[in-house]
Amino acid sequence: MADVVRETRRWYWQRVSALVLALCVLVHLATIIYAVRSGLSAEAILARTRGSVTFAAFYTIFVAACAVHVPIGIARVAEEWLGLAPRTADGIAHALALLLFVLGMSAVYAMVAG
Amino acid sequence: MPQASAQAQPERTPARHGATLRVSLWRGRDDGAFVEYEVPRLESQTVLDVVTWVQRHREPGLAYRFACRVGMCGSCAMTVNGVARWTCRTHVAEVAQDGHVQIAPLANLPRVKDLVTDMREFFDKWARAQGRFFGARTRHDEFARVRPDSEARQAADAGIECIGCGVCYASCDVVTWRPDYLGPAALNRAWTLVNDERDTAQAARLRAVAGDAGCHSCHSLGSCTERCPKHIAPTGSIAGLKRVTARAAIRGKL
């Protein structure tokens, strides 16, 4: 029974995170294209992102959605292609989620407060 | 035209008088082999006609299944040139390439002999997916009134015409990868019952179809939908099951 609930939740969280990611990626790409159209330097970018609550909030959501979405997919691939046991695949997924979140948030921190 | 695509084109020309067709039939079980026969090419000839001709004129011991011959019973499905099809509703003219047709038993099912597969696992999975109707009314009660235009009724209608031929199951790559997967037909059947407002076993059914061997293993490859001779879309039914089970899980009812 645990398997049934786990699989259903995995599917649900992957769907929800995909919805968030679809929106975030669009905003992310549009912002990049808009911001660099006249050739911004690294200093100019940092001058705009430092202390920006909007930037911090948006990219925190983006990083969280990645940290949810990617490990679920990787766990699935690991189970199906590498034949890993669900518990092992879950362990890898949790470690990957933590890694993605820490790396992502450290990048956000560097842009906003670094 | 490149030669490869010219070869892939089935012959749509009418059969010439006295023409023959080369047919490779699978003989034996897993350790069997294709055996080639020459069969008279006839007008409007179906693949089932070809198999029957071989059985009557060349190989009395050839094992194959059929019953209605008109696409109603779903028992004559075989792999024709690598694709699962109803042999009774497949004209030779649609599939023959360079005057040749290869006929094998359905994939993803244990072989019994020649063109016959063991369908037990296929139908056991219908039972495992709670593909049976459970009602609350007796013969003494009034008929249930189900609105024909309700969303649930329309969803059930879309999948209800399945006759259990096994073409979708034999075409499903996920069944090949993981043999415990319930498969498109059983899940499609469950979806029609999930949309049956008279049914009383909904919670048990959702538990049966969710999870690793159930709807969550489907990768939406769509082979079942593409190959279904009844033009049912099991991929859509399975997507529906994913939505409904997710809703049930959120409400703690799974």
Structure, described:
The complex is a heterodimer of chains A (about 110) and B (about 250). Chain A has about 110 residues and is mostly helical. Chain A has helices at about 1-35, 40-50, 55-80, 85-110. Chain A has a single domain (about 1-110), classed as Up-down Bundle (3 helical TM bundles of succinate and fumarate reductases), CATH 1.20.1300. In chain A, helix 3 packs antiparallel against helix 4. The mean pLDDT of chain A is about 90. By secondary structure, chain B is α+β, with helices and mostly antiparallel strands. Chain B is built from 11 helices and 7 strands. Chain B has helices at about 5-10, 45-55, 90-95, 120-130, 150-160, 165-170, 175, 185-195, 200-210, 225, 235-250; strands at about 20-25, 35-40, 75-80, 85, 100-105, 110-115, 115. In chain B, strand 1 and strand 2 (about 35-40) form a beta hairpin. Chain B is elongated, with a radius of gyration of 21 Å. Chain B starts with a helix and ends with a helix. The interface of A and B includes residues 5, 8 and 11 of A.
Spans of chain A with pLDDT under 50 lasting ≥5 residues? none
The fold-level CATH name of the largest domain in chain B is Fumarate Reductase Iron-sulfur Protein, Chain B, domain 2
Summed over residues and divided by their number, the pLDDT of chain B gives a mean of: 93
Helix and strand succession of chain A?
A: HHHH
Which overall shape of chain A is indicated by the principal axes computed on the Cα atoms?
A: elongated
Largest sheet of chain A: none
